[in-house]
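During the no-cost extension, the postdoctoral fellow (Dr. R.K.) reprocessed legacy sequence entries with the updated structure-token encoder. One reprocessed record is reproduced below for audit purposes.
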Amino acid sequence: MSNGSFNDSALTQEAFPVEGEMAPVSEPSDARERPTPHRSKLDELLKNTKLPEGDLESANEALHKYRSWVSQMKQVDATGDELVKAYVDLLNTYKRSIEVDLIWDSESDFLFRQRGQLKIDNSIIEEFLPWLIDPRVIPQLKEQDLHAGPAPAFAAAYFSSSLTASASDIAMKVRRKDQDFTVSRRAYLKASFEPNFPPSATSSAAVWLAYVAAECKTNLDKTMFQEASATSHDLKVAVPAARYYLICEYLDMTPISTAGTDIDEVLIIRGKRLGSNKRKEYASAAKRRLLRNEYVDYLDANPIRYDVLKRFVDHLRSLFEACDPSEEDVVAKGYF
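Re-encoded structure tokens follow.
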């Protein structure tokens, strides 16, 4: 999950993920290399010198369960909504193991108190979403040169040169916004004061154009909503055809209409966040042991909801069905 910051930088290919980090979605699903932000957090956890010795075994077990989760998703033989449902079922099983077996059942407080910084469970949704971008779910993807995953999405281009700058210094820079999930295309930009773009007098950049962008939140509060509103506006100024979504597990605010924003929809995939008084009761490992059944019941009552993720998939499907209407249809219906 990104920190919501914008990045202004010089334009070099190295400033972006290498092509292998986001393989084309048209590649066969079982062979496609997808971004692994959650796996990275597990690897970092095992290298963390502050990890209590008593948690080392469960952290290694979590990595084993991660490999099993990915392997099972690769082996699912289904299409359409059936495939989405199978993926969501596997996601719920795996996420529960991380939330309960690794974090909740820890004999120390380190993992529970630092979960927001460590982003172990927070990053699971971010890694999962690219699995939904599959030709077996959206057949039109077979014909598209698209990539799915986290990306520094293009937000603006500007020039830092002055009136007296030399002809070799147009100084084009790019503004990027780190997004937890995108469906993107690679684009290449060049700018120069010279019409033939001589290498010595040209600024160039490779960027990700995010036609779909989503910010993933565990608990969505009002501040996060306002930040997303600003981000969605900037991304849609850069790519007017883009769609922007907020995907949160739990709602931690009074719902606000998205009508006055550039957010297309807020998707709540689990439910309402536990109140602060209840969360305080879980502060210590001793109390968590006593209240384990209560917490597990809460998780069982609020799994990641297939119907909400299917709604997200349906939004994506509709993008490929949209086309310019014919004049005859418009005249017959009276609108377009």
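Residues 31-138+274-323 form one domain. DSSP finds twelve helices and six strands in the chain. The remaining legacy entries will be reprocessed before the final report is submitted.
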